[in-house]
Amino acid sequence: MRRIVNIEIYSDVVCPWCYIGKRRFEKALANFPGGNDVEVTWRPFQLDPEAPAEPVPHLQAYAAKIGDQAKVDATMTELQAAAAGEQIDLRLDLAQRVNTFDAHRLLDLALDQGGSPLQHRLTERLMQAYFTEGRN
C-alpha cells in the first residue's frame, strides 16, 4: 500500500530565504527515494503583516528597517550568493515591499481548487515574479 507523507511549509512569498529554501527543499525531495509519495501544502506566514498595500522599493524599506548600510550590503551579498547557488536570479533592486495577505488568499484558493500541485506551481510563480521580475 502506498503511503503519502504530508509536509506543511509555512512561508511568505516575499521572503528571499523562503524562496532559496523552497528550491533546496525541491532538490532534496527529488533525491529522496519516496519523493513521489510526498504532498506539500504551503501555509501562510506574513513576514511583514504591517507592510502597506502600496509598494515601496524593497532595498529602501530594508535599509530603513536595519539602519546600518554596511549590514544591509553584507546581507544582500550573502543572499545573492545563496540565490545564485539555487539558480535564482535574485533582483531585489526591482522588488517592492508589499503586503502579502492577498497572495496568501490566492494560494489558499489554489489549494482548494487544484490541490497541492496547483498550489506548489503558484507558489513558485509568485516567488519568481516577485524576486526576479519585480512584480507586485
Helix content: 55-70%
Q: How would you state the average pLDDT, rounded?
A: 93
List low-pLDDT spans: none
Could you state the order of secondary-structure elements as H and E?
Answer: EHEEHHEH
Q: In CATH, what is the class?
A: Alpha Beta
- Strand residue percentage: 5-15%
Q: How many runs of DSSP E, i.e. beta strands?
A: 4
* Count of domain modules: 1
Number of helices: 4
CATH architecture: 3-Layer(aba) Sandwich
Structural class: alpha+beta
CATH third-tier fold name: Glutaredoxin
Span between termini: 44 Å
At a glance:
The protein has helices at residues 16-31, 58-66, 69-85, 101-133; strands spanning 5-11, 38-44, 56-57, 96-97.
Overview of the molecule:
The chain has four helices and four strands. It has 136 residues and is of the alpha+beta class. It has one domain: Glutaredoxin (3-Layer(aba) Sandwich), CATH 3.40.30.10. The strands form two sheets. The protein has a two-stranded parallel sheet. It has a two-stranded antiparallel sheet with strand order 3-4. Strand 1, helix 1 and strand 2 form a beta-alpha-beta unit. The model has no long low-confidence stretch (mean pLDDT 93).
List keywords for this structure.
136 residues; two-stranded antiparallel ribbon; two-stranded parallel sheet; alpha+beta; Glutaredoxin
Write the layout of secondary structure elements.
Layout: E1 5-11, H1 16-31, E2 38-44, E3 56-57, H2 58-66, H3 69-85, E4 96-97, H4 101-133
Parallel strand pairs: 1-2
Antiparallel strand pairs: 3-4
